[in-house]
Amino acid sequence: QVQLVESGGGSLQPGESLRLSCTAFGMNLERYAIGWFRQAPGKEREGVACQSRFEDRYYYADSVKGRFIVSRDNAKVTINLQMFSLEPEDTAVYYCAADSSPRFTTTRSMCIDANEYGMDFWGNGTSVTVSS
Known about the structure:
It is built from 1 helix and 11 strands, in the order E-E-E-E-E-E-E-E-E-H-E-E. The chain is mainly beta. It is globular and about 40 Å long.
């Protein structure tokens, strides 16, 4: 059974760093493009960081560019999101996702259009709260 399970969420102060991890059970991660998405209270879910299947294309939302880094370890079947200089606006539930379909033509379109067109697999989310 394929399952994505996030971990690493928590409560932090502005300026601190946090690393989220997502373990992919029952799947060959090498076959998938991956991404991290987040949903803040009262807002729609948005793509923040995505990586192509061959790890040669990346997309970062403007709000996190230069502060967040998406990576993967195919051997350990983990998807990671390293977050630096966290801001209160980063408060959200963070979801990892994976997709191997041809529905997206670019990594950017996957991150932007995932809500509309779906992804093969979603995790259940982990909460991050940034507050002083």
